[in-house]
Structure to design on (779 residues):
């Protein structure tokens, strides 16, 4: 996915979660196993509700649509009047069109976003996919993603906090964190399922912001061979080769791609290599097993942020420390997964398993040194879906369990030879985490076209950190001849063992008040657990200061949500209103106990906070047959309004929260011809954003609003063989801020022997004017 590499890994080693060599171990296994079983059982058997009945005439091929989790359709040649018990064909994964129909009939803010059916254009970051999706905030560089205020505490390795991401239903990254962006390969993705807030029972047991499920292309959805090339400003180049096909009961898809860029800023170049694919086998029309595989490697140079008040003058410059430490990240991964789906009449069974191995080198980071980091993760999952009736009403029931385990190692070293070699080891941490998630959901058509949904999640998860270091205390050293400071550590061991558990209920309703027009509402509870870095950083601060700090607890939220969606052939709308009340929201603060200059941050719980918002998406075709028969003028608008506040907090009162702007807007106006030619212009706007939690610093600590203009022109052949495009971004060359880390108050900086208040926040500039071009051909 290229430009969004730092989202899950971070730019500073101090924020990276510790992991360990404690392979596949569960402490206190007896008591924890019982708690896991009880939570899993409760989430499944506590669902007593019924489900969906099709009272509106179905679309072709939609007669067996399942609203709760998966889609199946009748086998080729069958009709809606097929006799009971007739064989049906399994689609694993479901098709994009089937998921579109299902998501419209769900009771919450859920969207399915196609990657392959969009007009050809730049596709290097999450922002390129979600620019027309309401409720998803992505920074212009793609390094930061948030839904409903998730992950506003800081940037770096916590980007993705509060959002669970999955690839074909299998977790993308550590069981105890958000997700790992480098594992996402957009060029191999067919579509993305977006669950905002607490709407996904299947995927969101420990996420407050929501969940994303990236669905891969297969030989059935992307047959044939293809080659694509893309390049442009700042030395950007991307290429892909892919092949898919079907032969008898087998289908296959494989692709490889390469991405390279020098980037707009100095010392932020990147190279990515990715290979992935899958093989499916249908031994019978109602059975399919699919095996997924992937491997990749990424290398990226890192640049330190710059002061906001110097944005116009040095936005392309990397501060000297970026070169002094020669900061950079190397990341590699290998992944294998399998999912098997069996449909037996009115019951569908699904079983899955996956394994992920990763390795990361971070050279070196201020105050942390060189890190050598790796983790191994695996898991099993199972799900049962059943169609029946209750009191004569068509009913659907779904229940499932997912078991995951993470183990690895997290080592830090001092550096030598200008940061290119490891010096003395300072940390040898062993981290492990179990995660047991369970869910159950039901639906019933209580009145014609009125469907009631009920659900429950159960979650039990552990965090275990063992300190295997035996080298004694290491003194930190100031700037050295080898470049930069050398980190140290205390003599005492830093260890913890925590577990968390919760039950999250949900109730919702969906009313199809007119054909393809829906009103929905729901109340959900969500739950989010502190990551390994949250716990270890607080522990390290305690060890260095001797002070006992409050333990970081899990955060929870109740969300009330209502909305409308649907439309006609030439006008589609999707609008959602939500009110979220959070307890113990996990934020970060300056570790002033260690450094008044805020060189280290630690997690804390904020007490009560409130997140309110409006998410609006419109897709329209106001004019057709304008110049010639079959052409059209189209317009798309996405507007997100947010009001995130502290609620009578003893420190922050009712202050507005930072990082996420009140207003975010994307607008597009374009023309499309029946021959395949298209052209459009677009505008991207973000309102101003605070850089401090308490509002201190005045206007100097408010990141200004900005508006970017873009344009795209291209052609894709009606038969889908050829496509070409040229796209421009930030055409007026606006200097703007892409990302920044908020602080509770104006931090202090070291000026000689004194600490003085900072005069400007540290920010990461966005890209300047850029022009890209691309082409693809299929055989």
């Amino acid at each position: 996915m290229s430009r969004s590499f730092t989202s899950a890994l971070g730019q500073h080693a101090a924020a990276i979660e510790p992991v360990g060599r404690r392979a596949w171990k569960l402490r206190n296994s007896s008591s924890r196993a019982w708690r896991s079983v009880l939570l899993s059982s409760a989430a499944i058997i506590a669902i007593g509700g019924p489900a969906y009945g099709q009272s509106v005439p179905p679309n072709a091929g939609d007669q067996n649509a399942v609203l709760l989790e998966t889609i199946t359709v009748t086998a080729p040649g069958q009709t809606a009047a097929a006799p009971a018990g007739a064989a049906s064909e399994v689609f694993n994964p479901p098709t994009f069109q089937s998921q579109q129909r299902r998501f419209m009939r769900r009771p919450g803010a859920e969207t399915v976003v196609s990657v392959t059916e969009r007009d050809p254009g730049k596709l290097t970051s999450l922002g390129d996919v979600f620019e027309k999706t309401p409720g998803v905030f992505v920074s212009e560089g793609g390094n930061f993603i948030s839904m409903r205020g998730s992950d506003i505490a800081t940037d770096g390795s916590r980007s993705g906090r509060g959002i669970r991401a999955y690839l074909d239903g299998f977790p993308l990254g550590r069981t105890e964190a958000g997700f790992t962006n480098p594992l996402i390969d957009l060029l191999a993705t067919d579509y993305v399922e977006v669950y905002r807030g607490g709407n996904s029972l299947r995927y969101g047991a420990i996420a407050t912001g929501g969940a994303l499920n990236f669905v891969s292309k297969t030989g059935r959805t992307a047959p044939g061979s293809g080659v694509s090339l893309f390049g442009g400003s700042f030395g950007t180049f991307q290429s892909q080769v892919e092949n898919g096909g079907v032969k008898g009961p087998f289908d296959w898809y494989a692709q490889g791609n390469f991405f390279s860029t020098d980037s707009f800023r100095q010392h932020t170049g990147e190279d990515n290599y990715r290979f992935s694919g899958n093989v499916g086998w249908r031994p019978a029309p109602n059975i399919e097993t699919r095996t997924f595989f992937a491997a990749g490697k990424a290398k990226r140079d890192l640049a330190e942020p710059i002061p906001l008040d110097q944005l116009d003058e040095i936005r392309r410059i990397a501060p000297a420390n970026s070169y002094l430490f020669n900061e950079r990240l190397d990341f590699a991964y290998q992944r294998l997964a399998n999912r098997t789906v069996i449909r037996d009449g009115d019951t569908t069974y699904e079983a899955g398993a996956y394994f992920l191995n990763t390795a990361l080198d971070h050279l070196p980071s201020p105050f942390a040194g060189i890190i050598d980091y790796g983790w191994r993760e695996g898991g099993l999952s199972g799900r049962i879906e059943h169609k029946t009736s209750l009191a004569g009403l068509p009913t659907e029931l779904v229940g499932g369990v997912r078991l995951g385990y993470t183990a690895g190692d997290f080592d830090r070293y001092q550096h030598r030879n200008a940061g290119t070699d490891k010096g003395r080891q300072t940390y040898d941490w062993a981290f492990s985490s179990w995660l047991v998630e369970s869910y159950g959901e039901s639906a019933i058509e209580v009145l014609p076209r009125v469907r009631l949904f009920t659900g429950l999640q159960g979650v039990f998860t552990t965090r275990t950190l063992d300190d295997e270091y035996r080298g004694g205390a290491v003194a930190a050293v100031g700037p050295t001849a080898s470049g930069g400071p050398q980190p140290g550590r205390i003599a005492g061991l830093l260890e913890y063992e925590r577990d968390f558990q919760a039950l999250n209920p949900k109730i919702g309703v969906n009313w199809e008040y007119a054909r393809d027009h829906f009103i929905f509402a729901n109340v959900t509870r969500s739950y989010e657990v502190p990551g390994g870095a949250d716990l270890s950083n607080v522990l390290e601060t305690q060890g260095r200061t001797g002070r006992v700090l409050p333990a970081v607890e899990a955060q929870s939220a109740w969300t009330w949500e209502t909305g409308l969606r649907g439309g006609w052939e030439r006008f589609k709308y999707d609008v959602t209103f939500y009110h979220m009340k959070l307890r113990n929201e996990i934020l970060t603060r300056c570790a002033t106990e260690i450094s008044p200059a805020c060189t280290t941050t630690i997690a804390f719980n904020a007490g009560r906070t409130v997140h309110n918002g409006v998410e609006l998406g419109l897709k329209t075709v106001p004019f057709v047959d304008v110049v010639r028969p079959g052409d059209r003028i189209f317009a798309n608008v996405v507007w997100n309004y947010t009001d995130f506040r502290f609620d009578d907090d003893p420190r922050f009162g009712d202050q507005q929260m930072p990082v996420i702007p009140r207003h975010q807007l994307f607008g597009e106006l374009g023309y499309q011809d029946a021959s395949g030619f298209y052209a459009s212009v677009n505008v991207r706007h973000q309102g101003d954003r605070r850089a401090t939690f308490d509002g201190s610093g005045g206007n100097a600590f408010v990141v200004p609003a900005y508006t970017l203009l873009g344009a795209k022109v291209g052609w894709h052949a009606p038969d889908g063989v050829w496509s070409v495009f040229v796209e421009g971004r930030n055409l007026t060359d606006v200097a703007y801020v892409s990302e920044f880390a908020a602080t509770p108050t104006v931090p202090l900086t070291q000026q000689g022997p004194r600490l003085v208040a900072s005069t400007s926040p540290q920010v990461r500039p966005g890209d300047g004017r850029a022009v890209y071009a691309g082409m693809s051909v299929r055989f």
Remarks:
- The chain is about 5% helix and 50% strand.
- The CA atoms of residues 535 and 551 lie 8 Å apart.
- The longest strand covers residues 421-447.
- Residues 6-466+492-778 form a domain with the Maltoporin; Chain A fold (CATH 2.40.170.20).
